[in-house]
Amino acid sequence: MKFKFDNYNKYRNNKVEYDGIIFDSKKEAKRYAELKLLERTGKIKELRRQVPFTLIPKILDQNGRCLQRACKYYADFVYKLNGKLVVEDTKGVRTAEYKIKKKLMLYQHNIIIKEI
Fold first, then answer.
1. Which strands sit side by side in the sheet containing 114-115, from one edge to the other?
2. At 106, which helix (H) or strand (E)?
3. What is the dihedral sign for C-alpha 77, 74, 29, 114?
4. What are phi and psi of 102, to 5 degrees?
5. Radius of gyration of the chain, Cα coordinates, nearest whole angstrom
6. Of 37, 41, 40, 53, the residue nearest 85 (C-alpha)
7. What is the pTM assigned to this prediction?
8. Contacts 24+ apart (CB under 8 A), 32-39
9. Please, are residues 69 and 55 in contact by the beta-carbon 8 Å criterion?
10. Are β-strands 59-60 and 71-81 bridged in parallel, bridged antiparallel, or unpaired?
11. What pLDDT digit, counting tens, does each position of 17-72 carry?
12. Phi, psi (degrees; rounded to nearest 5) at 22
């Protein structure tokens, strides 16, 4: 596994390039490599990255102008394991924003985020 490092961000994670893809952290890149291997061996299927989930739809006024943009959660990884949808997030820091979005994912989509 070959990684290319960049500058630190506010959570002290290095941006990492792996397989031609930029990841927010070495941990996320490593997890991607693990999931790609699981997909190649047939243990998981339909692996996708940075999948958006709408938590609160955009709000329009009576003239159709946007009053508030939609609130979305972007899952690090989504795949199927034994036919069931799995939503994963590689977490180092659980921000207040993330904690709210995690609750909204359960409320709106009935999905419990698997934290790595």
1. 45-56, 71-81, 84-89, 114-115
2. helix 96-109
3. negative
4. -60, -45
5. 16
6. 53
7. 0.85
8. 32/77, 33/1, 35/77, 35/79, 35/88, 39/79
9. no
10. unpaired
11. 999 999 999 999 999 999 999 999 999 999 999 999 999 999 999 999 999 999 99
12. -90, 125
Q: Are 5 and 13 in contact (CB under 8 A)?
A: no
User: In whole angstroms, what is the distance from residue 47 CA to residue 61 CA?
Assistant: 38
Instruction: Write the single-letter amino acid at 72.
Output: K
**In whole angstroms, what is the distance from residue 73 CA to residue 63 CA?**
27
Token pair for 68: 């508030």
Residues with Cβ within 8 Å of residue 29, at least 6 apart in sequence = 3, 16, 17, 18, 21, 23
